[in-house]
Amino acid sequence: MAAFAAAAQQLAGSWLWAAGGVACPELPPGGLGPLEVGSFVKQLRAAVDATCEAGRKLEEGGGGGGGGGVQDADVDRAAAAGAAVAALRQQLGECERAAAAARAPFAWADGPLVVALKRGEMMLVDELNLAGEGAWGGCEGR
Predict the structure, then answer these.
(1) From CA 96, how far away is CA 70, in angstroms rounded?
(2) What is the SS3 assignment for 104?
(3) For a 10 Å CB count at each end of the chain, is N or C smaller?
(4) Chain-centre distance of CA 72, in angstroms?
């Protein structure tokens, strides 16, 4: 979970948030539990998408100075916006990977019955008629 928090903090440090007028979602002071990470990452993705769109507009508008020539400051700002958009996307990817690792203890893992069925092996299961429908769904590949 510490890797996720570090990735989220690095993502929040981009100057592009302010330039795009988008507020970066902040981690709660107490942190997030493994089950809350998914919804937080969805909020981050939506904010990053909006910010990157604003960055693209900055990048495209970089050469549009008024009059005849291109202003050096506009070109520099456009190049910086393009680099910041790429960095923001990369940091979001790192944040999503860290979030997946944080949720890993709660991921699906095949049990002995499903493993035996996938391998085509035999397995003796006593009183299978008492199992819930969820057990049968895993056996049938649902």
Answers:
(1) 38
(2) helix
(3) C
(4) 35
Tokens, residue 47: 């904010």
What's CA 47's distance to the chain center, in Å? 11
Residue type, 7: A
Query: What does the alpha-carbon distance between residue 54 and residue 77 come to, in Å, rounded to a whole number?
Result: 13
Are the C-beta atoms of residues 24 and 17 closer than 8 Å to each other? yes
Q: What is the pLDDT of residue 62?
A: 56
109-125 per-position pLDDT tens digit? 788 878 888 888 887 87
Structure tokens at 84: 């910041």
Length of the chain equals: 142
DSSP-H helix ranges across the chain: 2-12, 16-20, 37-60, 72-103, 112-119, 133-139
Residue among 12, 69, 85, 1 nearest 36 (CA): 1
